[in-house]
Design brief:
The complex is a heterodimer of chains A (149) and B (88). Chain A is an alpha+beta fold and 149 residues long. Chain A is built from 2 helices and 9 strands. Chain A has one domain: BH3618-like (Roll), CATH 2.30.290. In chain A, strands 1, 2, 3, 4, 5, 6, 7, 8 and 9 form a 9-stranded antiparallel sheet that branches. Chain A is globular, with a radius of gyration of 15 Å. In chain B, strand 1 (11-14) and strand 2 (18-26) form a beta hairpin. The termini of chain B are far apart. Chain B is built from 1 helix and 4 strands. The radius of gyration of chain B is 24 Å and the shape is elongated. Chain B has a domain at 11-56. The chains are: A alpha+beta (149), B alpha+beta (88).
Chain lengths: 149, 88
């Protein structure tokens, strides 16, 4: 299942228009850690880049974070979102959440995913937050991605 | 740095809206209870700094070439349809 394509499940009217733009504005009221002042990102999805997506700083096309839903690559990933964050995001259940993990590309061509502090987004409101998982101790902030070459 | 002495179950109040309470002391571990508004993020410092550092390293300028993942999934957009303007 591709998280990037599962925003579709409800609220179809709104998604029709979002799909036309192929771009969704994600609102992070608290920003990302270290980037607290940047609160709006465009989620860009290029089919050729799936399952990767871009969280591009709104109106700054050259600044972006590469993300992917780690569940795509690591089926055993079990992000446990703390209760306060569930409340903050207005999530009524796990299915309301999109979980994106920030990817770091190294100059040597390797890539790692932050499994410890994912960006959790309410798929209906598109409000999100970078959360520190309740089970963060289980996960690495630089978990190597399996690459084929 | 302001240093205050507190006993178990005593608190300090920051800015009239954040309360930090000493919940328990076990050896060299102090358990704190923090009550803060939802828009005030609270983190363990070392975790905060680790994620902050990782975020800074991850920020990209331009569009670098992406790595290839082993199992390529079907290429779909939000609705599972080809994106307008791109070849199907």
């Amino acid at each position: 299942m591709n998280m990037c394509e599962t925003i579709e499940s409800a609220d179809t009217n709104r998604l029709e228009s979002l799909t036309v733009q192929n771009e969704n504005i994600i609102h992070l009221p608290l920003g990302l850690l270290g980037f607290e002042h940047i609160k709006h990102y465009a989620l860009l999805q290029n089919p050729n880049e799936s399952p990767f997506c871009w969280l591009q700083v709104l109106n700054r096309p050259n600044l972006a974070f590469l993300v992917l839903p780690a569940l795509e690559v690591f089926p055993d990933y079990e992000p446990d979102v703390p209760a306060e964050d569930v409340k903050f995001l207005g999530l009524n259940g796990p299915d309301d959440a999109l979980v994106f993990n920030i990817i770091t590309l190294s100059a040597k061509g390797s890539a790692t995913a932050n499994l410890k502090g994912p960006i959790v987004v309410n798929r209906f409101t598109l409000k999100g937050k970078q959360v520190v998982l309740a089970n963060a101790a289980r996960y690495s902030i630089q978990h190597p991605l399996p690459l084929s070459r | 740095m302001l240093i205050l002495s507190r006993k178990i179950n005593e608190s300090i109040v920051i800015d009239g809206r954040i309360t930090v309470k000493i919940v328990r002391v076990e050896g060299d571990v102090v358990k704190l209870g923090v009550e803060a508004p939802a828009d005030v993020p609270v983190h363990r410092q070392e975790v905060y700094e680790e994620i902050q550092r990782n975020n800074r390293e991850a920020l990209t300028q331009g569009r670098p070439a992406l790595p290839q993942l082993p199992a390529t999934k079907s290429k779909k957009n939000l609705k599972g349809q080809p994106v307008a303007g791109t070849p199907a």
